Amino acid sequence: MRPDPGSFRDPDSRVVHGPDGRIFRELSARGAEDFAAFAASSLFGDPRVIGTRQAGEALLEHDRVPFVSYPYEWPFGMLKAAALLQLDLLDAALDQRLSLKDATPYNVQFEGARPVFIDVGSFERLRPDEPWVGYRQFCALFLYPLMLTAYRGVSFQPWLRGSLEGIEPADAAALLPRRRGVTVNARLLARLERRHRETSARATTSQLARAGFKPEIIRANVRKLRKIIHQLEWDVPRTAWTDYKADREKLAFVTAAAERVGPALAWDLGANDGTFAKAIAPHAGTVVAMDADHATVEQLYRSLDGGNVLPLVADLCDLSPARGWKLAERGTLTDRGRPGLTLSLALIHHLVITRNVPMAEVLGWLASLGGTHVIEFPHRDDPMVQRLISAKRSHDTRPEYDREPFESSLNEQFEVHQRLELGTRTAYEAVAK
User: Fold this and answer.
1) Is there a contact between 62 and 25 (Cβ–Cβ < 8 Å)?
2) pLDDT per position as a tens digit, 28-53
3) Residue 243 confidence (pLDDT)
4) Quick one: three-class SS letters along 92-153?
5) What is the rounded CA–CA span in Å between residue 410 and residue 87?
6) How far, in Å, CA of 259 to CA of 281, rounded?
7) CA distance from start to end of the chain
8) Assessment of whether the complete model's pTM goes beyond 0.90
């Protein structure tokens, strides 16, 4: 058994990796008692919670999530869905004399576009006269980031990537406009924290207990938060990529490759509106559709109705790094799984010309992923290529960007199986050497 490097903060419930990719959870005596209470409740077997079964004394086995993603990679709608799931489960838990000991989006994963709560160890027996201990964490990691995008039009991903603890109440109070939900959950909370900075958590809990803190108060707060979250909306701006249209020949070429490979995991890099991700989805276990444009990924998420396409906000020149304690709590993209099929369509010219990544570097990284690739190369006379080159300085004509050097580098890193000529573009099906 190998302990999961991102599961050590709860001593009563720790995730470990077993043979053949199986996922287990080791419980302390207290954790086992909490799980027994959860297993006796109507929440056990709820499809909103990861599939779990007893694997031994104080040992559980969980269903495996196809691909792990993080809140700083989710679009607005996914973070909102995860927040509502967290609140709905807490509300249901209170009916069973249970609570949740924390409120972090890292306890939620997505199977395609469907959120699933994965931290069964977060359920605990309700402690009389105690408040919901996860309230502040919920605000910092769910509520404030969503408000930042809904009220200010600012993407929350850099804020969550910058701090695994989320946005501090004092920072939220300074960033967000004066609105009812902000006043109570950010400004008032920030003021209380300043006033009680020297008061211990234990002393605060004791004060609440003496005041007769009841579960009904928790439920009322949870439902107020749910109403606030439900009403948060983001008016998605139009971008150049939201009007992307796919070529039928290219679509058939890509779909045929996916049908031949039948990958358990596929990546669509620069997924745009998700047309190709959706096309290959019937032939893959999971398709991770990545694009750097938040608005485009949000529109893709809104277009999904279940299924196995996981849309993520990801800039290939600034991918999610290793994070947390010993840089091991949160893994890099490739730490979390390697694709059997990778699509790189309408992508190469943006990386090489706009982002100044050498062609050989781009192809070298793609080859390092292994598996089969469908790579599209827009020729030098392609209108978009000409537009990108014209945006550079007059002396920077990018002579190295041409089909001959591209194919030379491609053949060094890949074995090309098929190609499709598409006017000013060529698509290649190739296998990494």
Assistant:
1) yes
2) 999 999 999 999 999 999 999 999 99
3) 47
4) HHHHCCEEECCCCHHHEEEECCEEEECCHHHEEECCCCCCCCCHHHHHHHHHHHHHHHHHHC
5) 49
6) 10
7) 33
8) yes
